[in-house]
Amino acid sequence: MSHIKLELKQSQLDKIKSICKNFRNDEGELINVLHKCQEEFGYLPAEVQEVIATELNISVAKVYGVVTFYSFFNMIPKGKYPISICTGTACYVRGAEKVLDEFKRALNIPVGETTPDGKFSLSCLRCVGACGLAPVVTIGEKVYGRVSPEGVREILAEYENR
Question: Which residues does the record give as [2Fe-2S] cluster binding sites (predicted)?
Answer without folding.
Answer: 86, 91, 127, 131
